[in-house]
Amino acid sequence: MAIKDDQGPPSLYRRIADDLKTAIGEGTYSAGDPLPSESELAQRYDASRGTIRQAFAALRTDGIISSRRGARRLVQGGPRLQDFATLLSFSRWGRAIGEEPSGRVVRLDRREATDAERAHLDLPDGAGVYHLTRVRLLDDVPVMIERTAYPDRIGALVAGMDLDRESVTERLAELGTAFADAEHTIDAVRATADDARLLGVRAGVPLLRERRRATDPSGVPLEWSEDRYLGDQVAFTVRNSADRNTLSRWHSAP
Question: Which end of the chain offers a freer environment for a tag, N or C, measured as fewer CB atoms within 10 Å?
Answer without folding.
Answer: C
